[in-house]
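User: Run a structure prediction on this.
Assistant: Running it now.
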Amino acid sequence: MKQHGAYLAFDFGASSGRLMLARVEEGKIALEEIHRFPNEPVWMNGHFYWDFPRLFHEMKQGLKKAARMDVQAEAIGIDTWGVDYGYIDHNGQLLSNPVCYRDPKNAKALKEVCEAWDFEEIYKIAGIQNLDFNTMYQLYYDKKYRPYVVENAENVLFMPDLFAYFLTGEKVCEYSIASTGMLLDAKKRDFSEKILDFIGIPRSLFAPMVQPGTVIGTLTDAVCEETGMPKIPVIAVGSHDTASAVCGTPLAGEDSIFLSSGTWALIGMELPQPVITEDSYKSNFTNEGGVEGTIRFLKNITGLWINQQLKKKWNETDPALGYPEIIAAARAAEKQDYTIDPDEDVFTAPLNMVTAVQDYCEAHGQGRPETIGEIAVAAYNGLSRKIGVHARNLEKLTGRTATDIHMVGGGIQDAFLCEKIAKESGIKLVTGPVEAAVCGSVLMQMKGLGRLDSLKDGRNMIAASFPMGEYQP
């Protein structure tokens, strides 16, 4: 099949978004960043919101830049963080800015749902890790405490589908992003009537479900006129960023563990069927949809969020302090045994992450870390040890012996973190590429256009295109 051309990939994380250009030629992928922009939730009147109009504006700015380049893109793919969504009214307009998954309302919803319905019974249906930001809890809150929004909505669209709608005018519900929200029957791979009935949300509120590699539609005339882009197709990729990242990970085989390292760390295995057992429930592992009919059996861990927030706080007094300096300080720290549990609630959205880490260590009898290096070490140890624990849990829950952990995403640029993960897990760590989510988006765009025979061929192309690293335990 044709293995050349150019593709555009919008990749949204929880702190920034960007438009990437991928050129495919002679069996290799070359990437170029066209446009990058911040993506920060806005705290307003007691709630966190995503600034959707600004994000959509930035998408169009990216398309304008792409239109001015001497390249003819064949398609566009969009991936975002999971669980969040927006409501569309009967006139096709956005009802309100989407609420951010870090919003404090979620804890209230989780408590009320789990008082009314034993979570173990929910898990037997959805197979999803119990996190207070799951879409089920958010929709429950909306139905009970913001009924006027639900009542005036014609559709609810997950974030990548929401962006695609305003680009194309077409409404879809892509499978991988829908699977993140605890709304699907994991085995049937469709919405659970029992869950929807419980929260009082009709199935008709959701658009038709499509699989990764489906052409959604073409850019609208209005978007083309404003941006200068031709009417190219927008393709539903693995629209959850982790689905795209795993798609873009050149796994060595079925016994490889994947580790997507960014604001969140997601560690798991790619399986043909979900694992929903008493042990997986007790371990709080999740079953999310992947590409080509796969299941991403994984654990969601707070990742580099803590490191990012530490740097942000330190930069208030030292704007020149960068990650290289923080890593050097961590390596040189006199005391190397400070540690935290990154998944504790105190690290979800503190006003001061530095104080949060210090207070945690002190409260847990470790003393109080004072230097940048000691505080950073606590974050590094917490994350790497958590990954090591869950790597061993994965082997027990799946009955597989891991040959390696294949790590992708921004975290692979931090050798100190990679060394610690290999040490704590006791498993060989392979790294690369950084831009796995973008690569995965490109592969599904190519599949949607009939330009790629198989996921294996695509992963081989990625392995040939980017350098891979290796860390021994």
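The radius of gyration is 22 Å.
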